[in-house]
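Human: Can I borrow your eye for a moment on a structure tokenisation matter? Separate attempts, laid side by side, tell us more than any discussion would. Could you pick a protein and write out its sequence and tokenised fold? No explanation is needed for now; the record alone will do.

Assistant:
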Amino acid sequence: VEWLKNEEPIDSEQDENIDTRADHNLIIRQARLSDSGNYTCMAANIVAKRRSLSATVVVYVNGGWSSWTEWSACNVRCGRGWQKRSRTCTNPAPLNGGAFCEGMSVQKITCTSLCPVDGSWEVWGEWSVCSPECEHLRIRECTAPAPRNGGKFCEGLSQESENCTDGLCILDKKPLHEIKPQSIENASDIALYSGLGAAVVAVTVLVVGITLYRRSQSDYGVDVIDSSALTGGFQTFNFKTVHQGNSLLLNSSMQPDLTVSRTYSGPICLQDPLDKELMTESSLFNPLSDIKVKVQSSFMVSLGVSERAEYHGKNHSGTFPHGNNRSFTTVHPRNKTPYIQNLSSLPTRTELRTTGVFGHLGGRLVMPNTGVSLLIPHSAIPEENSWEIYMSINQGEPSLQSDGSEVLLSPEVTCGPPDMIVTTPFALTIPHCADVSSEHWNIHLKKRTQQGKWEEVMSVEDESTSCYCLLDPFACHVLLDSFGTYALTGEPITDCAVKQLKVAVFGCMSCNSLDYNLRVYCVDNTPCAFQEVVSDERHQGGQLLEEPKLLHFKGNTFSLQISVLDIPPFLWRIKPFTACQEVPFSRVWCGNRQPLHCAFSLERYTPTTTQLSCKICIRQLKGHEQILQVQTSILENERETITFFAQEDSTFPAQTGPKAFKIPYSIRQRICATFDTPNAKGKDWQMLAQKNSINRNLSYFATQSSPSAVILNLWEARHQHDGDLDSLACALEEIGRTHTKLSNIKESQLDEADFSYSRQNGL
């Protein structure tokens, strides 16, 4: 026995890190990069050689940060700027799929440089008196402003002089204009004192007049206005709702109903993207320009707002269209009327639908990317007959109204035509969002009557001969003999009952080039619920930023918190009061009418920022928590695309005949002939059921003409996405070790194609 690495023999004597033991195991004491490769064990003797399958060993290296570089110089000569330093993920660099370094590769800090200020002259001062030399002068100072921080001093002279007598001087050196008659000096003094007296009288008259006017006005009184209504600070307001008129428009002419009061207390999460668009664009982040504020006293401020601004009451049906095909327009806070008028014209889609024509050979009808499928067994439809069978999922308002603590756990699935009669039960697969446990849930299958009412068909844990329910972790497989509309409901028995939620984050650019919107969805963990989210986001231009994750939401009445963490400083900022949002428990637990989501608006500091890295934390108080790591480019051409759905069931919605089934028909006939016959040792269809994890309500199969055929139909529905027949082959092998009847299946009795197919699949 020897080991080969990349088809070359390994010599353990030359490499102390490799040890080939006496039992021929290969041990690599310490993984090195050079140990990556394909390892093969080869055994040989004089007769032949035999090789094992190659074992691929990949030694990966997680990345490590290098040291930070020195801080760069301030990017501006003066004023407020920034400095940065960087590091690279090269110490070591990630290899062979190793994790990339966590954290930021660039750090920025603000810096302030003092700007040089050049000096500037003040205005010239007054001329001085004439000197004996018949000259006067004036000066100015370099203080407007004074030079600082290395600025230049003022250019020019700081004083100037000139002759004050136009060159005429008397002999004793006195200026000519100072020689004046005595009468002129006396007249000037009289004029000066007269002017001062007149000014004093005028000021006195003005003061007396103002005093008398104010006294005459004081008889009417003055209202005291509370300053808090004018300062614009954060105050607590009671929102008074206006019930008259259009509930979507603010009506300033009507008086608010002071008997009804609700208080807005914190961030709002909405179930409908249209509602959220209206609130985030026009109400939460912009001034309330259309709300009339009236100061009724110094201690009360009332605001007349519409019922729609509440979001604490029930949604009014018909107010907004709900569906997948929605068109969204930008809502401007100053002009909301055109948007509201066009809501009625938005297209809606209330159901997903698929059809197929089936005959005596049966087939499979699949609703792509929803987890809903219908299996029509062979011979369920009489020969020479064919039916157009349809299947649809209700995506509008559910017609099943929950009673008390009952919760809708699945979509409402309709299959038809309702008057079609089958001779063998068909299998309907419906996805659900419950964390299956009989200790915490009581799950029921319900059917809608022709009168539109819902009635219980059976409890999943009950014994019944009319239908059979097999509950898997993510889907329920139901054997039925009549078409109609079905749904699963659950009644939590304890607070530990868990609904499985799928959480996902989508992002898209806003109409403002610096804004980027994040929308976090929490929907029931069913493929059809997530498909509705995907359809909405495609209409809005949204992009899935991280693979969706599963959140276990307990029925313990605690709310759900969604927050944005680790936003890169100096690159992005989030609008105030929106970094953390809370959703009430009832909105999540019973909120299966429309996808529940919260929106966050981020803003870039500069258009050059194209990368966004942050974390989205979704957690239930005293419950489960999930972290969505967002690391994306906001540019369309650089963004990595994440696949929404696997494409395995979206290519052929309807498959008919033998290609729709995994078990070849001839082998199916032999299995049924073998196990339908009672056996004294119990090695019959009951053991076949038990080996395929069907352990309860076996009385249902006993009422069928071929119990084994019905069990195989259930196996087909349960394993429609499996790639082979391993589970069935193992079950048959375990029974066949002591069951001699399996020897009746001879190779000569099988079709050549069926025999080849069976050998390939181990059956």
User: Anything to note?
Assistant: DSSP finds twelve helices and 38 strands in the chain. The first helix runs from residue 182 to 217.
